[in-house]
């Protein structure tokens, strides 16, 4: 299998490129490699898919951050094990429609029908599939790690039951649009080009309703609120997408409904910080345990675990518990739990405790604090160098 190219290299932008620069570059490349401008050119088609995939990632702040940190492997939760799929994962359809609409009509010149999923191709006068919907859902850390079941409520447009989505009153019929002659588009000349645009009267359908349905006012759909049960699998993270087939906008003229994509956003947690499948947890260690060594209890997803602390453990030292992180979304393996120990100073000291600490301080030597000694030596070297430079400049 050919290794994927770096997304920044694909678009030809630096790693610190602004969102506007990324978008401008993509629009230029998309125009250059658009399949309707390079009919039959498989190389151009492949390049169009490649730049579109790169744009999907680099134009999204969360995906770009994951990619910058973990590369292509870091996008498994966003695109799944199979990788990017244009018809499923490209979320910037409006960008392309805006770019190509004046040249190829509002459908993008057949790009989305013929090249990326012919199943979506539909007649503007026949059944039309409903639009896909996006729903952003905030979930707790525990729900993301262990999985849960949530109920969501959203407003969607469903097929009007009175007219079966046709938009016309029962017993009435449609007639051909007089403005475009039933073609659904009007063509005008502009220099050397002929510009094809959607008919503004019939909206590209080619036919107009003579007597609109009273219930939906001719739209063929009605707004309604739907309550759905959503299963959140263990291992999801911010940016993970859940697809509910057939739960999007209702179709028109008997067409099937679109899909609903739920985008998850995981709340921050007070104990654990997450990086992919790994977890980070800061655990306070009593001063005497850090000095003398001993066992401490640390929190894990499975409960408390015992961690052995060596004598003279410094604050900030990291320990790793393998396999104690988050379960992978595909069910294979778990990440690691990283423990950062922070030496905690005693508080609310009794007289006896203060006396004991005073006794220790009376017998403590510089060798008991090697780090402080090193810092002092380095500072003295700095001062000596400073004084030498000052003397040389006199």
% residues in beta strands:
15-25%
Integer-rounded radius of gyration: 32 Å
Integer average pLDDT:
82
- Give me the secondary-structure category: alpha+beta
CATH architecture of one domain: Orthogonal Bundle
Would you identify the regions where 5 or more consecutive residues have pLDDT less than 50? 101-124
What is the N-to-C order of secondary-structure elements (H for helix, E for strand)? HHHHHHHHEHEEEEEEEEEEHEEEEHH
Fourth-level CATH superfamily of one domain: DnaJ domain
Instruction: Please report the total strand number as a whole number.
Output: 15
- Helix share of residues? 25-40%
Through-space gap between termini: 68 Å
CATH class wording of one domain:
Mainly Alpha
Provide the CATH topology of one domain.
Helix Hairpins
Could you explain how this protein is built, in words?
- With 394 residues, the chain is of the alpha+beta class.
- Among the domains are: 1-102, Helix Hairpins (Orthogonal Bundle); 273-358, Urease metallochaperone UreE, N-terminal domain (HSP40/DNAj peptide-binding domain); 364-394.
- It contains 12 helices and 15 strands.
- The protein has a 4-stranded mixed β-sheet with strand order 10-11-15-14. The protein has a 3-stranded mixed β-sheet with strand order 1-9-8.
- β12 (294-300) and β13 form a beta hairpin.
- The radius of gyration is 32 Å and the shape is elongated.
Task: Write out key terms for the chains shown.
single chain, 394 residues, alpha+beta, Helix Hairpins, HSP40/DNAj peptide-binding domain, four-stranded mixed beta sheet, 12 helices, 15 strands
